[in-house]
C-alpha cells in the first residue's frame, strides 16, 4: 500500500519518461492502430472528440465503431477513420452481440477505447465484458458508461442480496478514467468523501479492481494496482466542459496505441490535456473555449513537453 505520498507529474518527470517514438521512416503501422468504440444516436459527438484526439496524440491508424444510425455522418466528419456501424438497442445503446464483429479486429489493433458517449448501461456492460474476452492482452481504456462493467450485474436497488462492491477484478489491468461522481457510483461510496481523500480513493479502487485509475479533478490522481501514485495539478476551470473527458480519453488511447504503458499513457495524457487548457486560456480566456479545440493543441505540446 502506498504511503499516499504521490509523485508530482511535471515536465521534468515527463522528460525522463519519454514516449515511444517512431523512427524517421516509421509509417502509420509503427505508430499503432486504435479502435474507439463510442457514441450513440444522442451523443455522436463524443466518438468524434475521442477519435480525433487519438490521432492528435500520434496514433497512426483509427477505426471507430459506433451506432449505425450515426456512422455515416461520423465518417464524413472524420475522413481519416474507418467507421463501423453497429446495431442499436431500443434504449439507444449498442447491441452486445456487436462484440463478435469487433472481435475480428483483435489481431489488427494495438489498443482499445470503449465508452465515450455510449448509452444503455445494460447493453454497454455486456459489450464490455465480451470485448475484454476478445481483446485480452491489448491495452484497454474504459471510460464513461463502459466503466460500469465493474458493477454487479443488474441494478443494485433490484438485487435481492447485499451488493459486494469488491467482487469484481479484471484478469489483467485496464485503465479507468472516472471523476469523483463516477467513482462514487461505481463503488457505492460518497462523492464528498472521495473529493476529500482522492489519493486513498484512487488507490483503493486500483487495488480492488486490478486497474490503473485516473481519478479526474482539479488535482488528478493516478493510481496503480501495486500502489504507485502520481498527481497532476494544472489546467484550469475551462476544462470543466462537456466533451472534455472524451478528449482526454482519446489522447490517452492514442498514446496507448503508440506503445505507452497504461500508467505512462495516462500520465502524459493528463499532462497534455491540462497544458492544452492552459494554452487555450491564454488565447481565449479562462472560460468559453470548446472541448473540440483541445486536441488541436496536443501535437505542439508533445514536442514542448518532451523538450521542457
Provide structural commentary:
The protein has helices at residues 11-15, 44-56, 71-77, 98-103, 121-134, 180-187, 191-196, 198-209, 244-257, 262-284, 298-307; strands at residues 7-8, 33-37, 61-67, 82-86, 111-114, 140-142, 174-176, 211-215, 219-223, 229-233. The chain is of the alpha/beta class and 308 residues long. It has a 10-stranded mixed beta sheet. The protein starts with 6 loop residues before the first strand and ends with a helix.
Shape type: globular
**Poorly predicted parts:** 155-163
Q: Helices and strands: which structural class?
A: alpha/beta
Q: Please list the strands of the largest sheet in the order they lie side by side.
A: 1-10-9-8-7-6-5-2-3-4
Average pLDDT taken over every residue: 92
Summarize the entry for a quick read:
With 308 residues, this protein is an alpha/beta fold. It is 38% helix and 14% strand.
Strand and helix map with partners:
Elements: E1 7-8, H1 11-15, E2 33-37, H2 44-56, E3 61-67, H3 71-77, E4 82-86, H4 98-103, E5 111-114, H5 121-134, E6 140-142, E7 174-176, H6 180-187, H7 191-196, H8 198-209, E8 211-215, E9 219-223, E10 229-233, H9 244-257, H10 262-284, H11 298-307
Amino acid at each position: 500500500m502506498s504511503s499516499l505520498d504521490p509523485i508530482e507529474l511535471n515536465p521534468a518527470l515527463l522528460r525522463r519518461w519519454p514516449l515511444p517514438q517512431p523512427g524517421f521512416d516509421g509509417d502509420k503501422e509503427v505508430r499503432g492502430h486504435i479502435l474507439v468504440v463510442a457514441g450513440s444516436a444522442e451523443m455522436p459527438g463524443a466518438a468524434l472528440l475521442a477519435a480525433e484526439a487519438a490521432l492528435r496524440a500520434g496514433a497512426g491508424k483509427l477505426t471507430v465503431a459506433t451506432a449505425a444510425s450515426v456512422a455515416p455522418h461520423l465518417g464524413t466528419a472524420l475522413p481519416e477513420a474507418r467507421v463501423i456501424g453497429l446495431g442499436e438497442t431500443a434504449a439507444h445503446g449498442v447491441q452486445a452481440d456487436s462484440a463478435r464483429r469487433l472481435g475480428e479486429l483483435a489481431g489488427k489493433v494495438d489498443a482499445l477505447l470503449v465508452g465515450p458517449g455510449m448509452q444503455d448501461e445494460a447493453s454497454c456492460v455486456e459489450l464490455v465484458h465480451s470485448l475484454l474476452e476478445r481483446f485480452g492482452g491489448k491495452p484497454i481504456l474504459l471510460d464513461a458508461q463502459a466503466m460500469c462493467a465493474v458493477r454487479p450485474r443488474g441494478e443494485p436497488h433490484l438485487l435481492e442480496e447485499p451488493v459486494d462492491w469488491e467482487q469484481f477484478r479484471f484478469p489483467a489491468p485496464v485503465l479507468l478514467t472516472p471523476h469523483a461522481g463516477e467513482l462514487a457510483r461505481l463503488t457505492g461510496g460518497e462523492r464528498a468523501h472521495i473529493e476529500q481523500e482522492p489519493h486513498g480513493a484512487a488507490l483503493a479502487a486500483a487495488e480492488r479492481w486490478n486497474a490503473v485509475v485516473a481519478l479526474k479533478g482539479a488535482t488528478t490522481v493516478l493510481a496503480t494496482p501495486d500502489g504507485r501514485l502520481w498527481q497532476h495539478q494544472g489546467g484550469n476551470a475551462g476544462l470543466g466542459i462537456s466533451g472534455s473527458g472524451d478528449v482526454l480519453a482519446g489522447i490517452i488511447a492514442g498514446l496507448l496505441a503508440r506503445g505507452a504503458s497504461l500508467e505512462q499513457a495516462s500520465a502524459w495524457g493528463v499532462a497534455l490535456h491540462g497544458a492544452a487548457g492552459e494554452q487555450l486560456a491564454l488565447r481565449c480566456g479562462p472560460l468559453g473555449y470548446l472541448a473540440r479545440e483541445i486536441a488541436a493543441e496536443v501535437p505542439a505540446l508533445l514536442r514542448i513537453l518532451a523538450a521542457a
